[in-house]
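Hi there. Long-time user, first ticket. I'm pasting a complex I've been working with (about 667 residues overall). I'd like to know whether the download I got is complete or cut off, because the file seemed smaller than I expected. Thanks.
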Amino acid sequence: MAKNESAIVVKNVYKQFRLPHEQQSTIKEKFINGVRRKNKKYTTQKAIKGVSFDIKKGEFFGIVGRNGSGKSTLLKILAGIYQPTRGSVSVHGRLVPFIELGVGFNPELTGRENVYLNGALLNFSVQEIDSFYDEVVRFAELEDFMDQKLKNYSSGMQVRLAFSMAIQAKADILLVDEVLAVGDADFQQKCFGYFRKLKKQKTTVVFVSHDMSSVREYCDRALLVEEGRVAKTGTPNNIADEYTKLFIESRVGKSDGNQGESAHLGTGQAKIKNIKSQKTITKKSQNLEIEFEVLAKVRLEDIVVGFRCKDSADAAIMGTNTKLEQINSISLDGGEKVRINFSIPNVLNNGEYVVDLMVVSSDGIVYDWIINAVKLSVKTEKKTGYLLEPTYRVKVT
Amino acid sequence: MENLKSLRQRYSYSIILLKQLVKTDFKLRYQGSALGYVWTLLRPLALFTTLFIVFDKFLKIGAAIPGYSVYLLLGILLWNYFTEVTNNGISSVVEKGELIRKINFPKYVIVLAGSFSALINLCINFIVLSIFILIVGVDISAYIILLPLILLQLFVFSLALSFLFSALYVKFRDVSYIWEVLLQAAFYATPILYPLALVPDIAAKFLMLNPMAQIIQDARYLLVTQETTTIDQLYGTHMIRLVPYGIVLAFCLYSVYYFRKQSEFFAEEV
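Hi, the file is complete. Here it is re-exported in full:
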């Protein structure tokens, strides 16, 4: 197999949808509109506006983009579910799409029958399914349930069965859409294990995701879709940064020094006040300082005060509280207040971060929790593409 | 070579899918009903019994026809097949919408699967019919070997209409209501209950141009009694057969063309 052979070539693809202007909801409206069908108006929605790219054989290719950017439409065009309005898509090899796990699963059929039905949709003959049936059942850990109807399965069991079928797929090219968004941590570990195996086998994978850390980890190359166009193709780190920038701009608004949209949660028996923090950190040596007051409305014993720092994709990356730091228990009378200061060596790489602050009881009752209380932007000298950039001391002896 | 290989691959996928869809349909059809598949037999038999009592015993219409009970049952079974295929066909694509939006597969398989399910039912019903034939004692002629050809015509005609309706139904849900009304009228416009001799000649000539009338009368001619009026007897020429055959062919060509054209957009419209 030549190294630079293409698996998928997308040339100047456009996709338009015709959306009827008026919703016909009643029979009468339908009748009236049926009589004067010519007057019916359509809005043309341009979902994809001239997209071209190609994916090489053996590549792990990421497609990222915000909701409504057109990435799902693009994936469906690659899968052959939608036909492009203009342009062409050529696929070289057997392509299996996983827009959803367990396609065709029917709740009224037994687990066994569903394996055969889903298998047929994945292009397996009965003989082929017979040959790996036991393996599927074992991997899904459903040995005792295969003759029960699917409607009696828990959702976790259904996902396990579907996933066990999916990994049997013999494809040259796999399309994976946010499949990882479902399931518990244990299941996600299985998924990631499968990804590593695919990568080792040099299967071509097209991976659509919101999760930048898995894009960074698995993809060889990635593409950012924005408003139906290719905004950028490049290394996964590059694309993930670009995506993150888009995301924070839309979420917090254009950087004007405001604290973004913050929200209060909790019982209100204590209040967080007078928050002080830097807005920008420009030097590596500078500590990140977060300081605020906690005012108790009533007598509160053994309260715990903490913070949580999130990156621009809303993933919590660090945080601590007074209990973890073994600060002697804090108890306040009604009207009493206390001042807390967290000082953290700056290990963050360049980027935008937000901080949540919280006051809770020792058994977890939330008195006050401010989401996005502090917005922080780190602008130091950037060396690596990683999220963290501590000061390294390297010795060569 | 490459083309030939990929063509064969696609074909094998369709066959695998077709088998599974027919099987699934078979399993799900009478889910949770105590009598299960017996209903396939009971429904046409119930209709038959009602009509037989009314038309043979009360109205004495059947007296003119030897073996009227078999004659009537055969007509009902064939008509039943036709309505089952087309009625299931209309909504078949829309019902599989969830699937169509998730995976790319040859859409014609959906319609074909419905047609095969009904064909299985027809076969089961034919077993009952043969028992009837044995009881009533109909003289079976050698012409019976032509019966599969008639059934093929019925299969193709019903399937063609299903393709057309299922694709139309994606866009216009009125299709199912229109077809319901048309079927009701067609049941009486087709000589299922009554012998053609009861109808004025002009009307009979017109009614027999309908492929369903031609099919049912031909089947009766072959299987029950050669006193059945077929379309060529009525017109006195074999050439007249070209009209119902032509209608079937025209529907067939147009339906396939329309379905293929529309199936590209099923995923977004369904």
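A couple of notes from our side: Chain B has twelve helices and no strands. Chain B touches chain A at residues 12-13, 16-17, 19-21, 23-24, 27-28, 31, 99-105, 174, 264-265, 267-268 (CB under 8 Å).
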